[in-house]
């Protein structure tokens, strides 16, 4: 395999992984923000849990989830620099629970596709 073919395959894999991970960050945010948090801390938490993302992806996502009423927010002005804290709303918790159940079903379905055990 030539170097350009390997690069093309790597680029293709990256594209597919990005597609696969896109919705998982939404679910991860809804789960993590059951405990209130702010953007930068959430970025760190996501990374620590294996959901590497960047601020240019996260902040628009937080605004969209808030607009859809899956998150609530409030400003904390107790510190020198005000921070906007986000929290998963009741609707967000219901959505996260439904998505988590669906994720488990999908994981089981994918596993069944690669299961070598004869029936």
TrEMBL record:
Residues 32-93 form the Transcription regulator PadR N-terminal domain. It holds the Pfam family PadR. Gene3D superfamilies: Winged helix-like DNA-binding domain superfamily/Winged helix DNA-binding domain. It comes from the Bacteria. This is PadR family transcriptional regulator. It comes from Microbacterium aerolatum. The lineage of its organism: Bacteria, Bacillati, Actinomycetota, Actinomycetes, Micrococcales.
